[in-house]
Amino acid sequence: MSKFSRALAVAAIVGLPGCMLAPGQYISPSQFVRSGVADDGHIKMVSITPEFLSTEHRSQIALPAELMAYQPDSYRIGRGDTLYITIWDHPELTSPAGTQQQAAANGRMVRPDGTLFYPYVGVVRAEGLTIEELRTLLTDKISRFVESPQVDLSIIDYGSQRVTLQGAFVKTDRQSITATPLTLAQAIGAATVDPIRADLSGFVLTRGDKQYHLDLDGLNRGESVAKDIYLKAGDHLYMPYNDRKEVYVVGEVMRPQALTFKTTDMTLTQALGRAGGLNPLTAKGEAVYVIRGVEDMRKEPAMIYHLNAKSPASYALASQFPVRAGDVVFVGPAGVTRWNRFVNQLLPFSNIINNAANTDNLLDK
Prior knowledge:
The chain has 3 domains: about 25-55 and about 245-335, Roll (Outer membrane lipoprotein wza fold like), CATH 3.10.560.10; about 65-70 and about 160-240, Outer membrane lipoprotein wza domain like (Outer membrane lipoprotein wza fold like); about 80-155, 2-Layer Sandwich (wza like fold), CATH 3.30.1950. Helix content is about 25%, strand content about 25%. It has helices spanning about 5-20, 50-55, 65-70, 90-95, 130-140, 185-190, 215-220, 270-275, 315-320, 335-365; strands at about 35-40, 45, 80-85, 110, 115-120, 120-125, 150-155, 160-165, 175, 205, 210-215, 235-240, 245-250, 255-260, 265, 285-290, 300-305, 320-325, 330-335. The strands form 5 sheets. Strands 1-2-17-16-19-13-14 form a 7-stranded mixed β-sheet. Strands 9-8-12-10-11 form a 5-stranded mixed β-sheet, with no helix packed on it. It has a 3-stranded antiparallel β-sheet with strand order 4-3-7. Belongs to the BexD/CtrA/VexA family. It comes from Lysobacter gummosus. It is a multi-pass membrane protein. This is Polysaccharide biosynthesis/export family protein.
């Protein structure tokens, strides 16, 4: 046997185990015990089986009781609101700027101090009154100058009570709280959720000094529809972006990539499907893993969930297993794939040895 052949054989014997255990290359199924669970204190390994899935229960998503309990009172006039006051049969009072003008030109804005001025009435405090309370007040004062006045009042511009929006919305303009109560669903519908970048499961409603994290996808999943939540003036709505909510699919799949998702969760079947599925030429069906929790290994063991995806029936299990943000889905290579890669890694090394041998022969000559 030549020097080159012996060197290649020794390198193959020494290098093959290292290739099998190289990071990102292979996880031995022998690490699983018969019960399907193994734990060394740092990594806990679990087989995805019907028995395991039957013990996994998804928690029911519920709305906070204090949000559901809030019911808006009658609208209270505030600073910045513009009122349109009608005195029937008295256009000189109703439309002093002329009937041809827009309604806003004849409107009465509530001043920064909460008051407004009206002819024959003078300055009255409007802030904090309901529409009916202010109408009664104006009727009483105008009746001193107009016999049996018929007074009507409406708000033509709401400028005092607003809801602010931020994040993955198409429109983030402030929305007004009006005489018709504003619900969360109406506000989100008017703002229009960004269908590509929004994370529906991470929505945050801030009221005062308290934040409510609402999973909008979970609350409206399937045939269930979340009950209306009424908004208050000053509420802040934030729809987070999903660019930090990713699942990483690597290994022997057709399109390894980071997958973003805007919903509560994604099943393992969906994750593999969006990555193009297992590579039929290089993937090992028995070696599908979901790696979770490696960032907190000091606090609790990381989890590795194993799926034997060799049979079509295994995809029924995968469709019931939810992956989470930060998970790594890894598909291991088949034995022949590992060997081919090892040989390919050896080829540059063999060329070096071959060149060295040729150089040695030339020097000997």
